[in-house]
Give the backbone structure.
Amino acid sequence: MAMASVSSARESLQHALTNRFLPNLEYLLQGSILDSAVEHLMHRLKGLCDNVDTSPEPFHDLEVCMSLRQPNSNQPLLLRVRRAMDRDAPMQMRYLGQPEVDQRRPTLVRSCMDCACTNGILDFLTEMGFRLEFEYLAKGYMFRKGRMKITVSKLIKIVHGKQQDMANEPISQSYIVELSVVAPTGQENVGEEMRVFAEQLKPLVQLEKIDYKRLGPMP
Amino acid sequence: MGVTVLQPYPLPEGKSGAYIIDHLSKRLLSLGATHAGQFLVDCETFISTPQHGGAPSRAVHVLHNSEYPASTFSIIDNGTGKQVSLVADNIFDLLMLKMTATFASKKQTKIESRGARFEYGDFVIKLGSVTMMEHFKGILIEIEYKSCVILSYCWEMIREMLQGFLGMQVPKDYPNYFTTQTIMNAMGQQQLLHAKHNDLYEPMDTVKQYLEQFTNYRKHVNVHVGGAAGVSVQPIHMPPSSIVGVGVGMGRP
């Protein structure tokens, strides 16, 4: 039948999942570097990464984490919404699954779904019953190396009720460094690629898989 | 993208949906329109599971439009009349599945309109058969004028085109969706929404028109089946105007 030529959105999504071209796993390594040494790392990254002429790409994002209590489950559902403060871009919503810290894998692996949204997303989630869990600003630089993404950013605490920017204070005296790839299921070589890259940054920053469970429950 | 008007087509007694679609397609083709593929608009509604606090149940309507294949359109209705709409990437569908403990899909009300798509100069005309759970519910005619994004500037032209191939009178007034609507605000008071005929038209407006019509078709089940089904369909709230409004009241074909 000719009508069958239009497949529903659900069908195409299922197709992307079964054929493994929907990127839904995040491979992650994290580390930190003191403010005083960040310049050296930036130089190193500029040398190692792609986007030579445009790098480093600055970003300034507000991340708002919203939670929804789920019946029959102790774990609330968390969704992170990011809004670019320095440019006009769609808001990004991200779902992150429970991290899997497998000793045999070189990186932390967690399921990950990224979804660009219109500006009403926070209002939408609030109406759904989501509540604000925490929020912070991330300000820093982004580099690329192939399909790897490297961010060097400062996490900033938001102090409400005062003049913006003035009152917001950095959470620590260091920058967070993240190396990540979001790839479809079944691409095991990603981790190895990342490990090799992390090696090259070694004297400056130690990128590791952080076991969140050892850090205690979410604040 | 331009302005789109969605009209239900009243089924004459004794004629099948397929017959009418065939008849209208032939009329369009003989007017000079060309067949340009198929289209599909679907809608699934998720209802929040009852909470301890006795909060009103919320409905999340998730719609797709094959004209915008990378997007998922959703409209949440918080049960007191407030609606928030959202356009997101398709992956939003997978996120909804993460919330099945809180928002359950009402599978029996999954509804869609699909059919042929025609092009005629700057117009796109879609003849959709509406089905819910494989049951034929009616015919929806979508007409888009691609060269303009404000209804008041092009309504006359759309209207003339509609009259041309439907072979019947279409009232001069703007279709219901574009005129002032009353909604209930969070305090339970009636509130007037401003008329949309001078606004910039957005893809979300097309989706909202579909939701309005789909809601009407779902209510029809209600009337025929009644009883237990009637109670469960209740939480799908729509502004009162949508109950009355069946587009521009069209005459007999």
